[in-house]
Amino acid sequence: MTGRDRVAHLMRQLASAACRCPAHSHTFHQGIANRALRPVLGIVDPLHTLHMPSRVAANSGFDVLCHALESYTALPYSDSVCVHGMSYPIAGNVKTYRAKEYSVDHPVVPHGLSVVVTSPAVFSFTASMCPDRHLEAAQILGADISNVKRADAGSILADTLRSFLFDLQVDDGLSALGYNKDDIPALVKGTLPQERVTKLSPRPHTEEDLTELFTASMKLY
Questions:
Q1: pTM assigned to the model
Q2: Taking Cα atoms as reference points, which of 122, 116, 124, 158 lies closest to residue 141?
Q3: Comparing C-alpha atoms, which of 10, 5, 58 is closest to residue 30?
Q4: Assigned domain for 122 exists
Q5: Model pLDDT for residues 174-191, shown as the tens digit of each residue
């Protein structure tokens, strides 16, 4: 949980009640929203990260990073877009992946990792709708944009993110998290109900677009 998550909704990972056969069971994320869920206080303590395992700190930071990028490039005064909408089935359909430095006895893809792993593909996809903001985001992350074309905003931000993730030793895409091309239909299906966040994307998208984004995210480097 990051400090920006002082919101009036929560996501729960649930087992499908319709499937009684373990071989065909699956999980999904269900959003629950109510003003009564909003915490009265959010504590943001940067020093807390000094006592966290490095991967836990990094993955928490990836969530913050993607929220910031989404907020700046989404529809005006909005927050999450495709990156977060696509993250829920990535975490919810985990098969065998066990995140490093997490003390759990079951497979888990941490939220921040499930968010950031699709970020290069997604921001490359959305850049055509607001290239100047995507370029500014790349510049903030260290890219030299002095002689670039607006049409290249997506690839520049995507490459900047890939370099950032490579330096921080992030797993090489969805394939490194245990997914393959046969899993893409289920990942797309799990993204479609997340309209609460995906509808804020600056660029409209179809099931075919989501399929291409998951495919592009199979490998990062």
A1: 0.82
A2: 158
A3: 10
A4: yes
A5: 999 999 999 999 999 999
